[in-house]
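wait is this the right file?? whatever heres the structure
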């Protein structure tokens, strides 16, 4: 993959999905992959035929959460625990946030230009797959 200029294209998003699906296959996990643009709009989505149905929803919510916070969902899980500073955040907003590992922002110069979410495996697997797709994108 090549690095983006200032925004994600549909071709970029499809490349993210393909890279994530390969990483999931290598890990022996059936997943759903969602790629959102900087505005939170769907650019690409694919659910493996064998992935659990809810993985489509979780991958999308993970991507949305990573985009809104400009942080990997794996890095903010503790912040919403009962002792965390953002404990009420998941219920305070009428938005599809999900604080489970598997969402990673796609950044350019520290600014989120989109996000990828992976659902269907264990949280650490989902995070690893999403992070691998982002790493491949950076080249």
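ok assuming it is, sequence goes like this
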């Amino acid at each position: 993959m090549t690095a983006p200029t200032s925004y994600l294209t549909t071709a970029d998003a499809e490349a993210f999905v393909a890279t994530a699906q390969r990483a999931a296959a290598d890990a022996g996990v059936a997943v759903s992959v969602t790629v959102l643009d900087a505005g939170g709009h769907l650019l690409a989505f694919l659910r493996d035929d064998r992935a659990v149905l809810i993985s489509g929803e979780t991958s999308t919510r993970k991507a949305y959460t990573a985009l809104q916070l400009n942080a990997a969902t794996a890095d903010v899980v503790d912040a919403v625990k009962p002792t965390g500073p953002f404990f009420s955040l998941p219920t305070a907003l009428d938005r599809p946030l999900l604080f489970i590992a598997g969402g990673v922002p796609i950044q350019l110069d520290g600014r989120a230009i989109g996000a990828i979410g992976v659902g269907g495996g264990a949280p650490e697997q989902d995070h690893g797959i999403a992070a691998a797709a982002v790493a491949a994108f950076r080249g």
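Strands lie at 32-37, 42-47, 103-108, 111-119. so i think its the right one actually
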